[in-house]
Write a structure and sequence with these properties.
3 helices, rod-shaped, mainly alpha
């Protein structure tokens, strides 16, 4: 069963109300929630970093219009480089 955001918020409020009279438990709950928020922020920044890196790579590469002859020349250069390594 998947809970909706409203149901999740209600459950969170219910659980907090149960421990509301215990300062130590409320403090632990708050610290845990803060940790979750920082973890979420960290994951978001990592995703943004990956996206930014991908954008940078894609912006550096462009399709150069090559003639059939130029494609053959480039392929031949690649073959020669491979043979030099062997």
């Amino acid at each position: 069963m998947t809970l909706t955001a409203m149901q999740l918020n209600q459950e969170l409020q219910k659980q907090i109300s149960i421990i509301a009279d215990d300062e130590n438990l409320v403090s632990k709950a708050i610290n845990y929630i803060k940790m979750l928020v920082s973890y979420k922020d960290m994951n978001n920044s990592v995703q943004l970093d990956k996206g930014a890196k991908l954008e940078k790579i894609l912006s550096m590469t462009s399709m150069a219009p090559l003639s059939d002859e130029e494609i053959v020349e480039e392929a031949e250069k690649g073959r020669e480089e491979c043979l030099c390594i062997i």
